[in-house]
Every structure is written in C-alpha cells, then in structure tokens.
Amino acid sequence: MRRVFLIVLDSFGIGAMPDAPDFGDFGVNTLGSVSKSPFFHMENFKKLGLFHIDGVNLFENLEAPMAAYGRMTESSKGKDTTIGHWEIAGIISKDPLPTYPNGFPKDILEEFSKRTGRGVLCNKTYSGTQVIADYGEEHLKTGDLIVYTSADSVFQIAAHEEIVPLEQLYEYCKIAREILVGEHGVGRVIARPFIGTDKTNFKRTSNRHDFSLEPTGDTMLDVIKADGKTVIGVGKIQDIFAHRGMTEAVYTKGNEEGIEKTLEYLDEDFEGLCFINLVDYDMLYGHRRDVDGYAKALAYFDEKLPDIMGKMREDDILMITADHGCDPAYTRTTDHTREYTPIIVYGEKITPVNLGTRKTFADIAATVLQYLDVPANLCGQDMLN
After folding, report:
1. Which end of the chain is more exposed for a tag (fewer CB within 10 A), N or C?
2. Residue range(s) defining the domain that contains residue 305
3. Quick one: 227 and 360 in the same domain?
4. Count of domains for the chain
5. What pTM did the predictor assign?
C-alpha cells in the first residue's frame, strides 16, 4: 500500500532564481538569511541532504545524506502560494495572475460595497499587521471593511471579529470571489479577521480563510482521486485548490497542529497522497521579517522529523519542498521572494542521490503519480529513475 506524504514548508526558499530581478528581488535567500540566526538548528535536515543541494553552501565536510535531494526551479510566472502549489501539483502557469499595486478598480469596489452593504477602507498595497493598526479604529467606528492587497495576486478583507462575525466575513469573501473573475481573477480572496480594542493591541487571529481561484486544469489531486485513491489535505491545501481533488481535508491553526495531524495520518491505513502545508514560516515570520522566529520554527520542525520518519512504513515516501521564498531579512519589501526551493525525498526504497536542479516544480507531481501508478498527462518529469 503506497503512501506519499508531501510537506510544503510555505516560503522556504534556498536562493534567488536567475530571473529574480524581474520580480524586484535582488540577492534574496531565505535559507541563507535564516541560517545566520542563533536559533538556527537543522541537524536532521543536514542528515537528509539539505546542505548538499546545488547552490547551498553553508557547511563543509558533510556526511553522506540519507535522502535524495535537489533544487526546484519555478517555471510559472509568479512567486505566490497559489501559482507555486498549482505547479507542484502539475500545472505550469505561463501568464501571471493579476496584481493591483495601485489598488482595485473603482467599479470592482462599488460592486463589492453594493452587495455587502458596507463601505471600503484603504484599497492599497499594505502590510497585514500595519493595515489594521492604521485603519482598525476607523473600521470599529464605521463598520467599513478594510480591503488591501500586496505584491501577490490577492484581495484581502480585514475585519474585527466583534464587528463582522466570522461567517459573515466569509460570506463577504465569497461575494468578492464571485466578482473577481476573468481579467480580475486574483489568485486568492483572503479573510483576515482580527481582535483588540485599539491600534495598540489589534491582533490578527488564526481564523484566516482563503478563497482561491479554481485551478486552470486537472492537478495531481484530481487524477489521484479519480483513480480511486485517497487524497488528504492538511492546512490550507483545500483552500489553495478550491476544495477540488480531495477525499478528506482538515484545517490547522499553525505548524504545530499541522505536524501533529501528519503524525496522526501516518498511523492510518490508506493508499494515496497526504498533502500538508505548514504556513507559519510565511505568514508569521517571512512577511513579518522575523529572522529568529523563522529559525525557531524550522528548528521545531527539524526536531519533529525523527518522529515523522519513525512512523513511516516500508512503502512510504516523504517529500519536503516549498512553494516560493519569503526572505525574512529582505528589506526592500515584505512580500514573497523569487527563489529556488528544496526537494528532499526520503523512504526505505529511495536511493540517496543528487537530483540536481529541476526545471519545474511539476516534477513533484510527475513523481507522485508515477509512484502511485496513476496515469496522467500533466506537466513535469518524474524523478524516480
């Protein structure tokens, strides 16, 4: 009974891609920046081969790795969560999703206000924590929704949980999702609830919810499910794929719960894919430019790796990768960074070899499908051979 556990360390880039300057990123390296923290500790990743990967030059005299390892190149024109995960799942997006550096068009916001019955505040590119500090008190007074974006293809709605109950905020997001189609089809509409009494203590909660654009074609999730096998989504996977292609899914409130859910699924009997997103690296540390927090979160996962590996069965494969970068030491912006990502493949039947620099994230999808013996015609080249 073959099982693949695919874990995405959200935003764990390992160095700038050649076209990074085209995306406004110069000299970025998430792993390189985090490695300078006194809290950086990845001994188990070292054993698996992370520091053997092309372009990763952090340690010398490394022991022979326990896993296959390599570097993934993003072929899609983007550096966001949606595009990255779609490519991992077998879809290469040649056209970037729309972004709004100058805010959303007037007609979009008028339609949104008409259908929600609420006004709109901000409508600018903003940091998620700063926007509630700057507009939160006005929102409390007026009930108007805080709408903002970033360098990514996102329409974000921030609202206080006592002013706009969660289910109502989610309904507003669904309305925005219905409006934002066609040329304005952003990758994600994101609910950003917060709490607090004033700008000195406003705080975002873990009740974030993403409403993604439908994938533009079949993904590995769709074809694995259609083949009668199990597809489990852990974390925000179900949101990223618009609730498509899964037989089971569970939300998590952070990395710790995501890891615990992974350990639980390792004890279950199924044939297929368990697809996990650990979002804290991106959401809590990358965007907030918190190098030490990022390092601590990586060290925590590193400490849990032996538990995960210890529960694996003879036919299991563990794959660890990322969807983009988000260099916490990069000061030009607080947005994602265009970087290579790692690929670690571990299992009893996996030979520890250098997989080199892959041409596309979609090689992951091709490998998963080949291992699970699921026929498909998606992008990517399998790495099993």
Report:
1. C
2. 3-96+216-371
3. yes
4. 2
5. 0.90
